[in-house]
Design brief:
By secondary structure, the protein is of the alpha+beta class. The protein contains 12 helices and 8 strands. It has helices at residues 100-103, 109-119, 134-152, 157-175, 178-181, 188-203, 210-216, 221-232, 236-254, 259-265, 271-282, 286-296, and strands at 22-28, 36-40, 45-59, 62-67, 71-74, 80-84, 90-97, 126-129. Strand 3 and strand 4 (62-67) form a beta hairpin. The longest helix is centred in the middle third of the chain and has 19 residues, at 134-152. The chain starts with 21 loop residues before the first strand and ends with a helix.
Amino acid sequence: MQLEINQEQKEVKAHGSYEFPVLISYERLSYFDTWEFPWHWHPEIELTLVMEGDISYQVNDSVYYLKAGEGLFCNTNVLCCGKRYQSEDCRYLSITFHPRLLYGYSSSVMQNKYMKHILKSPALASLHFVPEVEWQQEILVLMEKIRRLDAEKPVSMEMQIHIALMQIWLRIYEHVEQEEAERTENGRDTERIRQIMEYIQEHYAEKITLEELSDQVHLCKSESCRLFKRYMNESMFDYLLGYRIDRSLELLRQTGMDVTQIAGQVGFANPGYFSRIFKRKMGCTPLEYRKRAKKRTP
């Protein structure tokens, strides 16, 4: 499985419906070919509850190591990704919902008084929930309640889920630092990261230089490299290589092109170098990956 994202790194999957903008999904890192989900963002809030195993979860420039029984709040429009940490796999619950479910209509009291300052605060891009902190444990219990409601599907399921999400938001509102929530930072660095990633997505099959990437955000090479490394925990070059490998997976699964052709299609001039980078990331050669993919295909 691969995450559906567009050239702006936005996830394009529908999160619920207009009538009830909530998506409750049950995920495993092993569902993804690379045992990780790539950088992406969406305008919805996402709550994650780890059910089994653990995960390294990054939101903007913050990295969390979540284990079973812990959870995470990801604010709207933040960049996030996740990968294996120590366990073989991680099973987790994802609750994704649009904030309008809670505030109703634009400029309502709910939006202006209780939500806007949190939704727009770079300082509150994410929150880590652990059972040892009482108010966070209450949120974890409510997330588990939502899981049960989704599984049992009572007649009043949507209403009860709505109430549980309101209770979660109340606890977040009551316990976040208000001075942080009201900071006026504009998230400029996050936007620069998005611009670099968007350029890589559009031009990954071409030769890309550091100068070209730096020009996208109007910074010098050294500053743009430091910025990207600080946020992403990897260099721009390593991200580019990883993205090229990700793009090659579909070609290996769904076409009859040979490795040399695929290497050229995704931006590798040297097929031997492509194979080395592929094995480093995937743990197997491109041909081995193709054979495994064919075995999995019914």
